[in-house]
Amino acid sequence: QVQLQESGPGLVKPSQTLSLTCTVSGGSISSGDYYWSWIRQHPGKGLEWIGYIYYSGSTYYNPSLKSRVTISVDTSKNQFSLKLNSVTAADTAVYYCARSDDFWSGISAFDIWGQGTMVTVSS
Amino acid sequence: DIVMTQIPLSSPVTLGQPASISCRSSQSLVHSDRNTYLSWLQQRPGQSPRLLIYKISNRFSGVPDRFSGSGAGTDFTLKISRVEAEDVGVYYCMQATEFPPTFGQGTRLEIK
Fold this sequence. Notes:
The complex is a heterodimer of chains A (123) and B (112). Chain A has 123 residues and is mainly beta.
């Protein structure tokens, strides 16, 4: 079965760039059947969708973060990545990668999630 | 963005008894294709969210049939027919009718 695993630094300094990678196992990003998202959860709070990428490289970002976010895909490694620049303490959160099918033609929900990785922004 | 509001924020329930969580959206979730993209997720303590229900009332693979979803337009409900100990956690509604997808603030289900 498909599994997702986030990886990356757990501590980032203010004003620097947060970089995370999600490795997909048990299935191929290139199958074209799914979209690959990043979602975050501030400590003790709810969930915020950051953006998604399709295997072709097309992306869609949450307008609230769009100016600071880049999501990329490496199909050869079956990975996709998140970069969030100019981070502040407000970006401290658990970051999840998640899978969804094609919005508005399938179940349109996040059916597989990674275990999440905590990222703290602090000097 | 569509705002999702859940009621209650905390729900103490007795094992074996039913539980109900409400979710209201700031605008109709009926898409132009006539589908309503409202889903429910469960987050057990220390775990990632898990999909329970999609498109209002469809149980995802492996989800026990004690979980059911209903509603239309802007008002939706998740029901658990008989709460079990493993149901403890936080439940979120989520809309994907309009981008960006947005989530409710979560309802904490706890055992009395």
